[in-house]
Amino acid sequence: MLQFIIYGFLLLCFSIHLIKLSRPTPTTTNNKKRITKLPPSPPKLPVLGNLHQLGLYAHRSLQTLARRHGPLMHLRFGTVPVVVASSAAAAREIMKTHDHNFSGRVESAVAAKLLYDYEDISTAPYGEGWRQRRGVCVVHLLSNRRVQSFRRVREEETAILMKRMRDQRVVDLSESFATLTNDVVCRAALGRKYSELGSNGGRKFNELLLEFMELLGSFNVGDFIPWLRWINIFTGFSVRVDTIAKEFDDFLEEVVDEHTRKLENRASRETEEDREEEEEERFGIITKFEIVFCGQDMFAAGTDTSYTVLEWAMTELLRHPKTMERLRDEARRVGKGEAEINEDDLDEMLYLKAVMKETLRMYPPIPLLVPRKPSRSVEIEGYHVPAGTMTMVNAWAIGRDPGIWEQPEEFSQRGF
After folding, report:
1. pLDDT digits (tens, 9 = 90+) for 24-46
2. DSSP letter at 26?
3. What 3-state DSSP class applies to 383?
4. Whole-model pTM?
5. According to DSSP H, which parts of 46-127 are helical?
6. Which of 292, 415, 294, 303 lies closest to 361 in space, CA to CA?
7. Rounded to the nearest 10 degrees, what angle do helices 304-319 and 173-189 cross at?
8. In Å, how far are 67, 218, 227, 238 from 241, measured between CA atoms?
């Protein structure tokens, strides 16, 4: 019944705006006698714009549209103007030449709920607060020294994974890779892993993290057609977002409180004043919530992205036995008969690096990069991009551009 009401309402809006179909879509704007040319655009529908042309996999649909209309397209998702870059040249201008201009992020109701109203690093507006939080993460989690300090964590968790695989006759690689990356990130960012809570506790944490990531990447019609936000209430989407946001927030706050209690109980010769000065020197003026933001970003950026690439790499190796055999030969040669390969050996495994690069080319973990918006109007590839336009880079299409790659749809041993 609800579907009929929604479709009837959309049909009414379509009829009201039908007259717009007879008006040609302008490709230029005249502002004080200055002609500015917008990127090519496929035909749009009233109300929906180009939303009807996005299939289940938006990056594939946009790749098909780019082949017809060019590597830089101007679309409209509901009421939101969108520019999509599907070539390396256009992406370079957006992300390198004009990177400061495109440092703004696009607002999303789901991201606002899940990421503390744009207070985290990935969605916060560019400014002093963003720089401070980014600095905390870089110095204490992502610097070369800190990454090397977590080497033991990575090697221990990898050894646990290999032992588990040897002990089992049938292995679920997806679950195994997810557990590995989650445990490494947990130990690095939070000091412990949560898969060891037992079957129920570990599964609950993994399910919570999975649903958090699914919601973060979900399509929210209210972001593009604001007067249809009420649909999320009837479908239960809003309640689902609120529930997961609270559960994940409670989990991270409990982790921070646990660490705080450990520090308070730790015997130390330092005075309280010494500890406060040390904390301020290490972190600057940073609140508990900002620590939570950093932890949240580590999960959002470092878990499913990593194990997704591992899954695709194993899939392609199983499809290409010769590549698999050559990789095994390299591992035996570099490992010199040892049972395990350590991180020092990876520098010599050039074929492995080539395999991973080819995997990332074909299967980028985020096919459509995080949308940006320019703070000022700018010219990209000879086309005018107005200020505030939602700008997307289709990494999937760039990795499969026939103008750059030979046989782009094939997992090839190019340069291996």
Report:
1. 444 444 444 455 789 999 999 99
2. P
3. strand
4. 0.82
5. 58-69, 88-92, 109-114
6. 415
7. 150
8. 36, 10, 19, 5
